[in-house]
Structures are given as C-alpha cells and as structure tokens.
Amino acid sequence: MDWTKAKTILIIALLATNLFLLGSHAMRHGGVGDEENGAALLQILASRNIMLEVEVPKNHKPMPILQGEYVDASDEEVEALIEGSRKNEPCESRDDYIKAAEDFITYLGMMDESVALTDVTEEKGKTQVLFESRIGPVEVAGNYMQCTFENGRISGFKYRWLKAAGMSQRKADIISAAAALLTLENNEGKEIRITGINLVYHVPENSDVDYGSAVSDTAFPTWEICTGDGERIYVEAV
Amino acid sequence: MNEKKTYKIIENIKSLLIVVLFLSAILLLYFFWTDQNPFRMSFSDFSIGGGENFERSLYVGDVLLPSRMEVVKDSGEMAVITDSARYYGSFVYVDTFLGSVRKFLTSGEIVLEEVPKEQYEEAYRFASAKCCFDYYLPGAEYLSYLGVEKLAGMENIGSIREIGFVLGAPESLLIRDGSQSKYFRIVSDQADTFVARMMADEEVQAMPNYYPISEFMGAQVENSVRLPLTIETDLAVSKASGEIDSEESERITGLARTFFGDTFDFVRKLGDASGRVTYMYGYAETVLIVDKDGSVEYKSESDASANISYFQALDMALAFIDSHSFAPESEKNMKLRPYLSDVGEILSGARGYRFEFGLKDGCCEIFCPAAPIVVEVTGGKISYYYRNVPAVEKASGKMQEAFSAVNTIALNYEKLKEVLREELSIDAIADRIVSMKYGYLVRDGEAIPAWEIALEGAGEKAYFDLYTAEPLE
Fold first, then answer.
1. B37 and A173: CB-CB below 8 Å?
2. Given this model, what pLDDT does residue B47 score?
3. Are residue A78 and residue A38 in the same domain, yes or no?
4. Is A76 inside a domain boundary?
5. Listed residues A160, A176, A197: the one ending a domain
C-alpha cells in the first residue's frame, strides 16, 4: 500500500469535512447568507403586511443581563424640594432649565452616570425636561425622569427609574434583529410600518408580577421595535 | 540522504496534520451536534456529566416509615409506638420489624391469599405487632421494594394500610389493603420470630397501654383511635425561626443557583417590598419564590409525559430535596429529618405523585401549620417543590407528666367544636378524632410542646399545650 498517497487522500478528505462543518456552522449562526436572508425576511414580513422602513441591525455582540433596583423618592421629599426651589431665580434659557432639573435630581439622590438628557419641550406655558437612562450606549426602556417647570420654577416631578445595581457575570447571546422581527404578528391585517429597531434593556412584562410593590428587578437585552403609529413592541433578545 | 530526510519530515508533518484535522473534525461535530457557536465558546462551556454534584443523604428507606406501630401485648392490651414515643428508649422496633418483613418475604417460598375481615381482626386481638401507614403505599410496588421478585396475585393489593405479624401464626404476614377494604395473608415456609422476640422484651411489656377513645367516653362513642392514659416527656419550649432570613442574600443566591444551574445568570430576579425574592426563567416556565419567612416555592412547567413508578418518583423527590436544601445545619439546632406524611396520586394532566413530608428530630415530631416539605413529580419531572422548614433550637426540660389526652379533649370541647365549625355533642366530636399526637408546635418564633388533634372533616388541626391543655392558636 502506498502510505504517502493514502495520507494525502486522508488529509484532503478531513480538510473537506472540516470546511463543510465550518461552513454549516457559519450558515447556522448567521455569518453567511445575510443578503438572501434579508430578502426572505422582507418577503415574509410583506406577506403579513408589515413594511420594513429601516435597516435591520447586524453584528450584535453578547450582552450581560442588568440587575437593577427601583429608585423611590418619597412624595414628601419631592414636595419639600419643589417648595424649597421657589426661592431660586426663575429659569429663562434652555440651559437654565436643564441645570435646574439636574440639580433637582441630584438633591433627590437619583443622579448617576446613567442619567441622560433626552429632550426639553415647551407647551402651554409648561416646560418639560425629560431624562432617560443609558447603560453605555444601551437605553433602559421604560426608565424616565420628567421635571415640569411653570413660570421658570419646578412644579412637578414624575419618574420610573430602575437603577443599575449589577450586571450578570456571563454575557448572553443576542438573537438577530431579523429573528425578532419574524415574531411579529399582524392579526388585524392593517399595514404596519416598522420605523425603528434598537437593542435596549427592558424589564419583561408578566401578568403574574405585582410591579407596584417591586423594589428590584432584572432588565434583559431586548429588541425594541417602533411602528409608524408610535407603538413600541418588545421582543426579548436572549 | 538529504532527500530521504526531507521525505521523512514531510511524512511526519502529514501524520501530525491528520491527527490535528481528525481532532478538529470531532470538535466541529460536537459543536454541530450540540448546536453551539464555536466562535463564541468559553472553556466553562465544556462540562462533563450533568454537573449535579451533591451528596445524597436522604433515601427512600429513611422517609418511608410507618405512621405508627401497634403492639398487642401478651396481656391483650395495646401499646402504640409513634414518632413521639421517645420514652421507649428508641424507635428501633420499627426498623427491626421492616427488616423482619424483608427477610420473611425473601427467604422462603411464599404464597398470597385473601382472608376474611373477621379472621384478620380476630388474629390481631392476640399478641401481635403491625405497622400502620396513613398514606398511599401501592401494595405490589412496596412488596417489590421489600425484595419480592414474583408473587402470584400481588398486583391485587391496592394500597397497604397495615402490615404485621401475629404470635399465633408466625408463618403468616398479614396485610390490610386500605383502598379496597381487602385483607391478605402471605404464607411462607419459614416462620418469623419478630413478635416472639418482642414479647420476650420486658421493655415492651412495660410500655404504656393505649386505649380506644370509645373506652374513655360515653357508650355511644365508637372511635377506635387509641390514646395513652398518661405520658411522661421532657419536651420544653424552645426558640424557632425560619431556615433562612431574607437578609441573607448570599445564601438565597446560593440556593437559587441550585435550581437554575448554568442558566442562573440569565434568570430574572425580582424583589418586592415585603422582602420576597422571585426568580423566573423564560416566561415564568420556572419560578422560584423565596419568601421573607424563609419558605421556598418552586414551580416548573413541563410537557414531560414519562410514566414513572411510585418508588422512582419518591427517589427523584428525595434527590431533589437533597440537592436544594440550605446548608449547613447549626450545632445548636435540632437536626430535623423529613419523613413521608402523605402521598397523593396526580391523575389530571401529566400523571405523577404529590409527596408531603413531616419533620422530626430523632423521634420527636415537629408540627407545622402546613406540610413543611412538598414535592410533586409529574411526567417524570419535578413540577413543584415547597419548603418551609423551621430552625428549632435544642431544648430539654425535666421529665414530667403531660396533661392527660382524654382530659385535654374534654376540657377543650368548645374549641374543637369551633375547629369543626359544627354544633356537635362531645360524643360526636370524640367520634370525629382521627389522630392525637404530641410533639413541638412551631409558632411565632417558638417551638411549644403540644398535643395535636386531627378531626375528620376539619380543614385544620387543633393544638393544645402539652402540660396545661390551653388552646394554642
């Protein structure tokens, strides 16, 4: 027997097997065929009368799970702070409003690095300064702090804030945005326009849970899908 | 010469390449088979075995104990060995009895036959010993567990309620089938000497006699549940607390990890203002609740539909209890051990069994408002687990006489009426007593020596101070 030839054949056979297995893995885990998949995705969504108006995000890395504690400020404390701020000079510029709102949040002990300014709006003589929460680049959906100003002085404060208390040691694989989109149903048949899809942290909703008394909870990486009529749909991404 | 050397080197490289390619093919096949992404693997993902490494301390034989042992002495009077009967020196006769039954069933030729009720009851009027089981115990499976390989007709035994020997017929083992009100006798060519040995023991002859409630009460009472005339005991009030404090977050996390294993990092953890922590996996497919009082409740939805036997299910339940318990036990506390107190068959949906466990320290029973440990095994999987085991400090007082059992009933007739929520005469109440035991009642941070009375048709049990007969709410 020619062992040299036999070894060469064996090497070629094993190499082919390994390449085939690697290729299969790549196909399975989304590394290959994105274009074809993208076209197929559009077709499937269109058959459900769901129109995709944004690009589907790709290449998302594994993410940790966020463990958080709900921040609770007492009504008395908020009232006392509002009362105390009446002595301050009234805000005039946008920057004044932002500064006053940030100071208010700091006095309440709710300020940390995750607090990010979202918007300052003015309507019917009231100015609203809205903050959201971000862990690095990722938004914590549902978290907000809103300071309302009347005549340049703070008059109200609303919030729902899950403060980061820790991250899981291990990171979870994230399902593709395409897979999240495929979970969408359209039972009414009316056209749904997808105007945004982002990876956020989100506390899952569950009818068995009493959210009123929750003091701590877990937020999971979640695909937030925004529709043309302002609805936000959350699809857990782990 | 050089050419030969080069040829040899190339051949060696080829051999090495074959080995490397072969190993990588195996590795890739493993990834393919387990559907894991080889580009995102870590070393911790490679595990051998199931990862459930824990030491078993609970086995079927430890928990499958008779509810009591009834001994008819030579004199015809009866003594009852219960979990609380520590003053007998030991509970050793129950162990010896079960050993004798096992030996009897396996050492000779045996035949099973049905006997009339009258004959069965007559036999137990004389020197005898029988173990009574107040819970479901499938006959054929139990006999197989005791070592019987084949016995014609054993599948006809529904649920064993009583099993025992009589002195007058040592070649017979008597069985009462509680589910069908049938009576059986297993006859062997080897006689058993258990009752003879027991009767020769002076300690047994000196055991306090138990009398039917009917003998203590009015002529209209027919209740045959037996009570002692007097009891001496050294039980004393001691401190009790939950097995875990809600502040002990590390212990809680450690316990929770045992339920979720590798997925624990991805489990939802929800805390509420009451101090309760809820762990959820998936869309509440698996839920674990650790309450402020130290109780633990685990529920797992499963579509498993495997049919497993009573003993397989019980073993599975015990392994689960073993692997999901708090450790370590404190030296100052009683070492409470679970025993089987009730068994129910689950017949709707995925079939299985519900096992309820009581607790005892040595021979002293601990009374809890609800079963302290419950495990449901359905479709071959654990679907429910509840644990609310108290930590009770060791305590021992001087030996003293307990308040008379009969007087406790008579004195608390009004209270028993309240528990039954019915307007009944004292005789009618006496007829409704299913059991009366003594042990520790765990309540409001204390373990109090108490009488426990179970009444037929009552949702709850009644408790009275063991020494004063005062009702314990």
1. yes
2. 43
3. no
4. yes
5. A160
Structure tokens at B317: 């339940």
**How close B249 comes to chain A (CA, Å)?**
13
* Contact (Cβ atoms closer than 8 angstroms) between residue B92 and residue B102: no
Does one domain contain both A78 and A56? no
Q: What is the pTM of this model?
A: 0.79
List CB contacts (< 8 A) between B283 and chain A: 204, 206
Choice among A147-156, B51-60, B94-103, B245-254 with the minimum mean pLDDT: B51-60
> Which residues of chain B have a CB within 8 Å of the CB of A172?
265-266
Pick the more confident residue, B207 or A212. Answer: B207
Name the amino acid, one letter, at B423. Answer: E
Residue A31, pLDDT > 70, answer no
Interface test mutation site (partner A, options B14, B267, B270, max chain A beta carbons within 10 A): B270
Q: Confirm if B273 and B260 have CB atoms less than 8 A apart.
A: no
Q: Who's near A129: CB < 8 A, 6+ residues apart?
A: A97, A98, A100, A101, A117, A119, A120, A146, A147, A149
How does strand B268-272 pair with strand B277-281? antiparallel
Residue type, A202: H
Q: Are residues A92 and A151 in the same domain?
A: yes
Residue after which a domain boundary falls, among A160, A180, A213: A160
Same-domain check for residues A172 and A61:
yes
> Under 8 Å CB-to-CB from B19, ≥6 apart: which residues?
none
| ipTM summary value | 0.75
Cβ within 8 Å of residue A148, ≥6 positions away: A126, A127, A128, A154, A155, A156, A157, A158
Q: Is the pLDDT reported for residue B182 higher than 50?
A: yes
Q: Which residues form the domain of A37? A: 33-65+168-236
Number of domains in chain A: 2
Tokens of B366: 């601990």
Asked if A192 and A223 sit in the same domain, the reply is yes
Q: Are residues A150 and A213 in the same domain?
A: no
Nearest-Å Rg of the Cα atoms of chain A is 25
d(CA B194, CA B104): 10
Residue of B nearest to A208 (CA): B284
**CA distances in angstroms from A20 to A13, A25, A129, B41, B88, listed in the order given:** 11, 9, 57, 20, 75
Largest CA distance in chain A: 100
CA B234 → CA A170, B39, B289, B463, distances in Å?
54, 67, 37, 18
**What are the residue ranges of helices labelled H in B350-458?**
405-411, 413-420, 426-431
Peptide bond into B328 cis (omega under 30): yes
A28 touches chain B (CB under 8 A): yes
A178 with A237: CB under 8 angstroms?
Answer: no
What's the CATH code of the domain at A101?
A: 3.10.450
Q: Where in chain B is the domain with CATH 3.30.310.160?
A: 239-392
A41 and A121 together in one domain: no
* Neighboring chain A residues of B11 at a CB cutoff of 8 Å: 3-4, 7
Residue A1 lies in a domain: no
Look up the CATH number of domain B239-392.
3.30.310.160
